[in-house]
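Async update (no meeting this week)

Hi team, since we skipped the sync, here's where things stand on the single-chain job. The sequence we agreed to prioritize is pasted below, unchanged from the tracker. I ran it this morning and attached the output directly underneath so nobody has to dig for it. Comments welcome in thread, and please keep replies under the output.
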Amino acid sequence: MIRHIVFFTAKEKSDIDQIIEGLSVLTSIPCARRLEIAANRKSDQLGNDVDVVVYGEFDSETDLAAYKMHDLYREAIRRVRPLRELRFAADYELSTNVHFAGMAGVSQAPPLSRLSGRG
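Output:
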């Protein structure tokens, strides 16, 4: 599974709702397993520069590529680009390189082959 996370800053803080509205068209693209658009709560003690977050989960690189090629993706860019200052994106695959904390403490994610039953 690929996780796709994008952070946006607004040129004008008064445009944050309009950025969220423009990005919300992305939720109609069928390629994502999960897609969320949200305003940053700005509750971090070290920095609150990010205004809007996009979080997506995709089953494969093919699905992520199809999402980025979709007409609604281009529509979101058309709506949001004039309103945003910065855009930072990161994609990573849930793999043995991912460290996470759970009820049993910090561990590594099992290989995808064990998660999906494929070996």
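Quick observations from my side:
Helices lie at 16-23, 61-69, 71-80, 112-116.
The CA atoms of residues 113 and 119 lie 5 Å apart.
Reply here if anything looks off.
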